[in-house]
Amino acid sequence: MLLLVAALLSLFGLSASAQQYSLTTYDRKSGLESQAINVLLQDQRGFVWAGTEMGLYRFDGGSFERMGAAQGFARGEYVTAMVQNPRIGQLWVATQSGLRVGDGLHFSKVEPAGQPLVVDVGRQMVALDDGRLLLVKNDRLMVLSGGHGGQGWQLRPMFDEAQLAAVPQLRRITVIHATPGRLWIGCDGSLCSVDDAGKVTVHGEAEGVPRDSWTGLLLDSHGSLWLRGVHHLRELPAGATRFVPRDLPAGDMGVVSDNEILVEDAQGRVLTPTNRGLARWEGAGWTLMDSTNGLPDIEITALLFDSHGTLWLGTYGRGISRWNGYGLVQGWGRGQGFESVPNWSILRFDAQHIWFANELGGSVLADGQTRLQPWPIRFDPAPRQILSLARANDGAIWAGLYDRRVLRYDPASQRTTLAAELPAFVKFLHFDRQGRLWIATVNGIYRIDHVDAPAVRIPATQTTDQQCSDIAETADGTLWFACNAGLLRFAGGQWTRMDTGSTSIASGFSAVAVGTDGSLWLGANEPGLFHAAVSGNRLSLTRIVDTWLDNTLVYFVRRDHRGWIWVGGSGGVDVYDGARWTHLSQADGLLWDETSQNGFFEDRDGSIWIATAIGASHILQPQAMLAYQPGKVLITSVMQGSAPVKSGDSIRLGGRHAALTVHYALLGKSSGGQPRYRYRLQDSEWIETGANVINLAGLPSGDYRLEIEAIDDDHRTVSPPAQFDFGVPPPWWLSWWVGLLAVSLLALLMALSWRWRSRRLRRHNRRLEAMVADRTVELTEEKRELERARAELYHQATHDSLTGMHNRRAILDQLAALLEPGQRPLPGLAVGLIDADHFKRINDTLGHQAGDAALLAIARHLQLHVRDGDRLGRYGGEEILLLLPGIDRPHAEQRMRDIQTAVSAVPHHWNGHAFAVTLSIGMVWIGAEATSVEDLIRRADAALYQAKSGGRDRVVVEAAGAD
Prior knowledge:
This protein is α+β, with helices and mostly antiparallel strands. 15% of the residues lie in helices and 39% in strands. Strand 44 and strand 45 form a beta hairpin. The radius of gyration is 35 Å and the shape is flat.
């Protein structure tokens, strides 16, 4: 049976599996009222268009906008086909109520002889360079011309009766496609071609074309003509006279479609839909892709490669999917053979194999294969939670495990041996230039000098007994260790704890990389990234100020051979190429945004592997992934009510006049999310918005320029501004002719009474006051909006997004404020460091969402048991900092124990699982004595450590007088 399957795969030249891909879906939430997609097209400007069963939609950079009456369409029109000639720029849209033509912003009806022109459903059209359009109506090939300079539209058959009699197949046309010097036509089950002289040739069985309903044609970049039907797929190679079979298996063809799609990617590979997904011609056979690779699990009805190489997939009922990072990124998940995720470490084993270490073991991928196999490490008990891999000079692979073991796999003997069993679990392994293995653990640093040597503990008096998470080595052999106690250096046989001066990182460091200039890039046990210059035993730390990095808990920092710095965290990967930061995420093709601590590996070809919580992403072309392609804002329409406004027009915006409504879109490589914009009038302050529309009203008279820019968070840039000029004339009562008339009337009516003049002036004054009052109300409302926005930004900057408590920076600032002279309420201050016991078990057994729910429940119950003046803040991970100001020591101890008992007793539930989470608390109480934030945190952490070591589920209070 296996031999039969292998033979069939060989016969069809198929690859039955492929990678896991990342797709972004656009549905009703993205503006698509109809999710049945008939056709996709990108126009000359760069707009992506979707023709659906309920209208025509245009992509504005983040969502789809339906074209309506303002653009020339009735509501709910069934779009069947679209085409544009890039040299002419006309965009033709066929609907079941008639043909439209336009420039992408405005469309008009095409009505030869005053009648709507309805094209046959699902039949492609061809826009010729001379402005004519070839279309199929009533199964006949027709030529549409005219429509220029007031000339009416003319529609005529392409073939006369004599030609139809000579070639009766031309009476039923199923598809048309133009190539240089020839027109190809699907004609009644056969294939016809027409040369420049009008000669018709019928291609049939003799030319390798079997009878079929031919509805797809494509001339690829190699000069091959592809022909797709319901049951057959054929290729006419360049220079050949006979079509060759390129059929898919019967199970992947046969579903009748009006438009059998063929497209070509940037690598020259042809793609076409199958009954279950997509097929891609690799030159020697087809690669099949379906829902197991991340594609929509429904019929694909439209395909489009845009100008940036992004693949768009239209479906029948599931909207549109955008294939992120097509051709640039490969994804490897359970569908490709991973027995377990998440992946923790990646390492190339030899010239043909790369290894992945994960939660329940490991996997091996052979170069050129599309499926992973179990790795050869065998040991009892079976290795689990392999956090780090390292390759020795002799080719052996060393693995560091969460259960404190270090295993060695010898490829020559294929045997696995226990190299060491440590008192603490392993965080990172590193072989230095002398071949020594350095082991970073949660309780300090160990070293193995050679294969048969034992693991030796580096004395804590020289280093630390706290957690060390990462190791980096410079060209001269200097070793750097990122530890909770700070950054350690080992050089010339000497250990040094680096001095960070006034820039103290209380939580310590979790990741380290050495830049090409010898500077250090550091991740801490708190959000943010640091860059450090080394001078003797001192570090000059600089925090990288960046929107993404400020909110990223760094898992790894690595430098590749280009000198680029790669930073992985919970929200994706940020890359610094020496000039610009770029953010990469699922929207760019990564399989998942949550990375792993040791989940970075640069392969021998310069490609990058990223380990994630659900598999691994392979960035094939890092340069192309980071290529900056600036977006462009295009103002698509400016309307006042139902009247269009052109740039430079003068309009009235006061009184009963409608507001000025500006619609705009973002052209260019889309980011996958809703774009952000900012706009302003003239030199006023920028206003940020996520909407694609602006309403302007109540402007005083004057000349205005509206500027709109797109904010690219991923590349930390803004686009060039789109500009629109308009003027607001003064009110009629301030016009020159009104003044002249007033002077004339004044000269004629000198005899009028003073009372009449006073009444008129009062009425005029009331009108002005009303205008001022209206404007005052508008300004007041704008001020309120700004104040609300500032308040929201302040809340986001000082509060944890999950628990709603103060974030780490905010709670530490409040602690520092309480330590200022004269600011501490008597009789004293209690500081409690709270940690959820065995919290990792919840994440490992029930998942991170269960852990987040448990942490949120703990936070809520803690908030129920604190006083109004007490402070709570998320210190990091599952650690919470509690401040009790104005309390004496006995009451503080009792409150801490009451809180611990009450919150530890709270039951937790997740997806039918009931579990308990106890708390351990380390408490420090101070009276009026002076101390520092770092000292209090250190002392509370020491008390917490005693609570953990003493069995957890308790409160340990620092002994009186201890420091």
